[in-house]
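Internal QA ticket QA-208
Title: Verify multi-chain structure generation after dependency bump
Assignee: T.L.

Test input:
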Amino acid sequence: MAAAISIRGVSRRFGDTWALQPVDLEIAAGEFIALVGPSGCGKTTLLRIVADLVAPTAGEVRIGSDSAAEARRKRLLGLVSQRPAVLPWKRAIDDVRFTQKIAGRVGFDPATVLREFGLQGHEGKRARELSGGMLQRVNIASAMAHDPSVLLMDEPFAALDEMKREEIGEWFDRELAVRPKTVLFVTHHIDEAVMLADRLLVFSPAPGRVMEVVSVPVPRPRDAAFRQDPRFVATAAHVRNLLSHQASAAA
Amino acid sequence: MSLVLRVVAPIASVLGLWYLAIAFSGLPAFVIPKPERVLDVLWVDRVFIFTHLLATLQVAAVGFLWANIVGIGLAVLFDLLPFTRHMLMPAAITLRNVPYIALISVLMLAFGDSLVSKTTIVALSGFFPVLVNTMQGLRSADEVQLDRMRILNASWWQTFSQVRLPYAVPAIVAAQEITGSGAIIVAIAAEWMISSSGLGYVINHAMQNYRGDQVYAVALLATGLSFLIYSFVHWLGRRLDWRAGDPRRG
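Actual output:
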């Protein structure tokens, strides 16, 4: 069976500067991959290459049997940015419908999904009337509204405070159990990555290259108690060591 | 109270300055008449002035319409086919910088004292702010929204109509405030130079007859009209602006 996402020798150079050294990775369907590393290490570049928003300098990305461009044309991808892409003049429910209208595909009933996303009673509100956490939930609902098989998330919870971030992360993990997706998730937050991901791609500082692929030895979904689990602590400590070792070597 | 201050204070200050100018300039009444004399002329010559006002409004409205068709049309074309910007923008900038007096003279030679020559001048003076503001507005669309449209493989028209255009509305409205109120002034200037109708012609006619009071009457009317158009466009723009009511905006 073909991998859900296959990244083969993908690299990217901007002018004379390498943003991303060659990356090879096979991602299984339904797998959650977190990309962690210091700023400027190429995490977002790799995500945007998979999204067909940036062309690789070398290498190729396959989404199932399609190229990244074909997958985008077939609307197999969903994108969640750090800043919510909710249209400010639309009500929450209309924004979710908007994705379905543009994609020409109704993944699920918008009212039902907003209710399941904890937004009952807020469907008619516009972006400015929603809190940061609510807005990000609408953003995720809109990104998933056409039922893409791959979800690309670029620091989606970065603007939220620590408590809200943990809460929405746990909620998102439960949602993925209901609506499984293959996820590529960029974050600076090691604990968040260990909590949510099946595997972590740990990047070195610029020019970015994958130093190590770290597997989280507990199946998803995971609840808040996992944060106290020795395996969580050990995995997070290992990733932290990798990054701090690289940072001190770079200094 | 604030409304009274906003309306009464400017009028009182203008009238105060006007009377001061009369008192201290020593200029004759046909150069600087009293405000009440100007209002009297507006009333007594109302049929004559109103007839020419209609001619001016026609020139301003048609010119304003063309300024928008050309300005917005070019901005949309540049968005759809970016290479056309390099082809046409230099011509637009050149037209913008040609002295209007030269243009009016050429148009007068080509079309004579006609609606075409006068509306062309109004359109030429107004299209550039509309073009530049619309281009800027279309470019101001949020990148995350544009990424969202790209990832959904949206067509150019979907991205334009659903994202770029709504983001451009505030900038387009701002251009209307400039072009709409300016259209009256430019129409009068064109009429003053080449026309036998309109408020510009009335000014010309009044000057030849030492009717400073009539010139002031027309000036007062034109200023009031421009102000009204500006206020209406501003009001309309507030209603079209999706940012209106956002508490995070100042």
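Spot checks passed. Chain B has ten helices and no strands.
Status: verified.
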